[in-house]
Design a protein that fits this description.
By secondary structure, this protein is of the alpha/beta class. It contains 15 helices and 14 strands. Helix 3 packs across helix 4 and helix 5 runs antiparallel to helix 8.
Length: 494
């Protein structure tokens, strides 16, 4: 064996022996321009890492972020900044970053389905014209990683822990980019709504940072009437019926008299029935009369597109997983969990739940190549660290989830603070009518109704994937920011 070959083997072994790591504190800045609502917007993009420190000031984790800042702004103090999180828990910020509010979006068709070649394109509806945006990847998501292997995972992975370290991180970030004067907004999607609801309270009460708005995209229950998990019992069973109605309407499975109506009209009927008639019947359980039970099953069948017999077999409490399997069973398809417009194919027509989530596979199909291409080629961020679409954050401590109540308290403490909910009607995971109920219960006194708003869209969990809803939902954010930004000199008082 020659010496050159031996050296190559040695060098390869040395490289392999090195661990892949990421620096805790980096920043790469690039400059770009785009057209938003047909007007030129020039902006900088800063992407890198900012540390999470322990109590002794040592870095224990690197949190990756991307910060978009409009250039040539005369009055930065009055310009809003929006801090964006996705959910999971364990999901990177890729979804809203590269499909919703940011200046670039992935290449998909007008309904949100993957197309090739993969990649990204300019977003003509981005809110960067009215607000700067920072997309944050919590620990172990995206490029963010734990640095100190001795640190307990409980430091990061739980409802309370997640909020605690991210509140500290946001404080540092705002200080670094000099945005203490600016109106501040949080936006979260799915579990990210749990995160930002808790952060609203933590930022105000532990960091003394007061917000103007919180945007909840496809919200969870926020710990409101949900115990340690999803809403159950008569409440949960009733609240999910309008979602069944929406999915059935989309797939043309409702009776003709309902199918011929507009979606929103049908949903109004289903909502009224669910709350006023169905819930009391289910609440009586086994002691409800056979006549009432059968009548309820007939109405549920009418509003859901599945058979009376199947509904009775579940004692009127039909699981969503069964519905995803049942609605198009005879056609040989399942429907998506997060967006029921998507279809899947199972191994067998039989069974009580789909083999896989058709919508999630479709999204991973398009997002994964796009985000990897985008960071390397557009933002010039080079690393051997893998971008975690979903990272290892389990077990996740879900105890003490009081985030809904904490958001209510934050709004009560701060007369400037407004909340907007955005939901897709075809979302079967974080259902739109559950979101409405959450909004109702956020303000049981009714004294803050003028600071709460609900917006619905004809799509699913990531409603912004559908081009028309991308336009509409971004415009709704613009309107929300305008409404929730006080006039100059207007005091925060009741």
């Amino acid at each position: 064996m020659n010496k050159k070959f031996i050296f190559i083997i040695f060098l390869f072994g040395l490289i392999r022996a090195q661990s892949i790591s990421i620096s805790p504190d980096t920043a790469i800045v690039t400059f770009h321009s785009t057209l938003i609502k047909n007007k030129k917007v020039e902006y900088s993009a800063t992407t890198g890492t900012q540390p999470v420190w322990d109590d002794h000031g040592s870095p224990i984790a690197a949190v990756h972020y991307t910060y978009y800042e409009r250039q040539y702004v005369n009055d930065q103090a009055s310009r809003p900044i929006l801090i964006s999180f996705n959910g999971g828990p364990g999901s990177g910020s890729v979804w809203m970053h590269l499909a919703y509010t940011g200046p670039m979006i992935l290449k998909v068709d007008d309904e949100g389905f993957p197309v090739q070649p993969y990649g990204a394109k300019k977003n003509p509806y981005s809110i960067l014209d009215v607000a700067d945006i920072v997309f944050v990847n919590p620990v172990n998501t995206g490029y963010s990683r734990i640095l100190d292997k001795e640190v307990k995972k409980e430091t990061f992975f739980g409802v309370t822990a997640d909020i605690k370290y991210l509140a500290e991180w946001i404080n540092t970030f705002i200080q670094r980019v000099n945005r203490w004067e600016s109106p501040k907004y949080l936006i979260g999607e799915s579990y990210g709504t749990t995160r930002v609801s808790g952060l609203a309270h933590a930022l105000q009460n532990r960091q003394w940072m007061y917000l103007n708005g919180v945007i909840l995209v496809s919200p969870t229950e926020l710990g409101i009437d949900s115990g340690s998990g999803r809403r159950a019992g008569p409440l949960g069973a009733s609240l999910r019926l309008p979602y069944f109605t929406a999915a059935a309407w989309y797939h043309k499975k409702l009776p003709d008299d309902l199918q011929s109506k507009d979606l929103l009209e049908v949903l109004g009927l289903s909502e009224e029935y669910a709350v006023n008639e169905l819930m009391p019947v289910i609440a009586k359980g086994g002691y409800v009369s056979n006549e009432s039970r059968n009548k309820a099953a007939e109405q549920m069948s009418r509003y859901s597109g599945i058979s009376k017999e199947s509904i009775l077999s579940y004692n009127l409490d039909v699981p969503t997983s069964f519905f995803w399997k049942e609605l198009l069973r005879e056609e040989g398809f399942t429907i998506g969990r997060l967006d029921s417009r998507y279809k899947g194919i199972d191994k067998t027509k039989g069974g009580v739940r789909p083999d896989f989530n058709s919508e999630l596979d479709s999204w991973l199909h398009s997002f994964t190549p796009a985000i990897n291409y985008y960071y390397k080629n557009i933002l010039k961020f080079e690393t051997d660290i893998k971008y975690n679409m979903f990272g290892p954050v389990r077990p996740w401590d879900r105890s003490n989830n009081n985030t809904g109540e904490n958001l209510r308290l934050a709004m009560a403490q701060n007369p400037y603070l407004h909340t907007m909910i955005q939901s897709g009607y075809y979302d079967g995971a974080t259902k739109y009518f559950d979101a409405k109920y959450t909004m109702w219960r956020l303000d049981p006194s009714g004294r803050m109704k003028d600071r709460l708003v609900f917006k619905g869209y004809r799509s699913g969990h990531m409603m912004y994937l559908r081009r028309e809803d991308l336009r509409k939902s971004n415009e709704d954010i613009r309107a929300f920011i305008r409404y929730s930004t006080p006039k100059q000199g207007e005091p925060a008082k009741y």
